[in-house]
Design brief:
The protein is α+β, with helices and mostly antiparallel strands. The chain is 54% helix and 18% strand.
């Protein structure tokens, strides 16, 4: 629309100026024909015919500083306005054209211009605006019709271009995405970039890269799932075999043979570690942990039960476990799952301290703030190696000791996340390691009030 206005307005103004110049030219020709005659006296009929042909009422020529009324006829009404085309600029022409179009009345105007071929100093005519306005309206309608026709053709071509360059490729991308979603493991359904528009081609290339990566990840996860199923079956059968072997190993401890007596504890320990590995693998291989059954209980009592269950308190023990939890602190959580989390953390800390061959201390503390309950488990062990910290909560990758699987911390972190909380490593250096458990106080499903 802006382009139409920028084209239409100057065009209609130029048409009005050409129309007036044509009237001036016709009036000049009529006047010169009359002046060229030997007898300057003409009849009223001829003068009327010359004025009608020029479509004016009067013609005035100024030659040699003399102003001469060459042709004249009665003017039906007073002159409304005067327009001097010699001094009119673009804005004046646009303004005067708009005035004519906006005024439907037929008025008489005076028009002044330069004669053609320098036949005098100026020429002046009087004429009606009615025929001028009618001619301008007809010209404007022709311009608008032509503009509308060009707009329709342009819109149709633009529609075809958009369909071919944008809509078609976008529909193709949508079809590929739909087909890929039905079978993401099928590499044949990965889109092949072919768009001609650079932006769409970049989008197709990004989609192809994402689909390729996703297909590879799905294949890898499928292989890992199959491998996990096989490992679970093997671990189940191996656990049964090792349990039987453990029973026979226990009997070897009662043997009177000194060599057997010395080897039996090592054999029993090896079998016990193998059984624990099988049980951890089977536990982690389950599809998911059950949702926590939230109840309210005293945290100190739970912590003491964990410490007692892990066998602390013996006189010859080199590792001590302290509980620094307020007696009145009541939290809302799944007691059984939290027991497993604390057991894993304490067991790992104990094994880390015992591996150094020195004595040490483990401390369980607890408290609360406005939003969370917190439980801190710290020890005076040697700290975690840098490699273990990088994959601390990832199964089979976060083991901190030789022969460890990292399942304990992975399971513990998963159980805490099931409560809507988080398990974090606060510090781990030469002075010891400290873990922090945060459990939100917000209400949860399954709460027992």
């Amino acid at each position: 629309m802006l382009a139409e206005i920028l084209i239409f307005v100057p065009s209609i103004a130029r048409y009005r100026a050409d129309y007036l110049l044509l009237r001036l030219e016709k009036a000049q020709i009529a006047s010169l024909a009359l002046l060229a005659a030997e007898d300057a006296t003409v009849g009223e009929a001829l003068e009327s015919e010359l004025l009608k042909n020029a479509e004016v009422f009067n013609v005035v020529l100024r030659r040699d500083e003399v102003r001469q009324l060459v042709l004249s006829s009665p003017i039906p009404q007073p002159i409304y306005d005067t327009y001097d085309l010699r001094l009119a600029g673009p804005w004046e022409l646009i303004r005067d054209a708009s005035t004519v179009l906006a005024d439907p009345e037929n008025r008489v105007i005076r028009v002044i211009g330069n004669p053609v071929q320098d036949a005098g100093l100026l020429i002046e005519i009087t004429m009606e605006t009615g025929p001028l306005r009618k001619a301008m309206v007809e010209y404007g309608l022709r311009i608008l019709f032509l503009s509308a026709l060009i707009s329709v053709v342009t819109a149709f071509l633009l529609f075809l271009a958009v369909q071919r360059l944008l809509v078609g490729p976008i529909r193709r991308v949508v079809r590929h995405m739909t087909a890929y979603a039905e079978a993401p493991e099928d590499a044949r359904r990965v889109i092949q970039p072919s768009a001609g528009v650079e932006e769409l081609r970049v989008a197709e290339e990004a989609l192809a890269a994402m689909q390729t990566q996703l297909t590879g990840a799905l294949r890898q996860k499928e292989r890992l799932a199959q491998l996990g199923g096989a490992v679970a079956k093997i671990s189940h059968d191996l656990r049964n075999i090792l349990t039987t072997a453990q029973l026979f190993a226990d009997r070897l401890e009662a043997s009177a043979d000194p060599a057997v007596t010395r080897a039996a504890p090592k054999l029993v320990g090896s079998i016990q570690r193998a059984v624990s590995l099988c049980e951890s693998t089977l536990a982690f291989g389950k599809a998911e942990e059950p949702p926590p059954l939230l109840t309210r209980f005293a945290l100190r009592r739970l912590a003491e039960d964990v410490v007692e269950g892990e066998g602390f308190g013996a006189e010859a023990a080199t590792v001590a476990c302290l509980v620094d939890v307020p007696a009145g602190l009541v939290i809302r959580a799944d007691a059984e799952q939290l027991h497993r989390v604390l057991s894993n953390l304490i067991r790992n800390a104990r094994q880390a301290i015992e591996a150094t061959g020195q004595s040490g201390t483990i401390e369980i503390s607890g408290g609360e703030d406005e939003r969370d309950w917190w439980i801190r488990v710290g020890d005076t062990g040697p700290g975690l190696p840098p490699k273990a910290r990088e994959h601390l909560f990832e199964a089979f990758q976060g083991g901190a000791r030789k022969g460890g699987t990292g399942l304990g911390l992975a399971i513990a972190a998963e159980l805490v996340r099931g409560h809507g909380g988080r398990l974090e490593l606060m510090r781990s250096d030469a002075e010891g390691t400290e873990f922090l458990i945060r459990l939100p106080k917000g209400p949860g499903a399954g709460e027992d009030d």
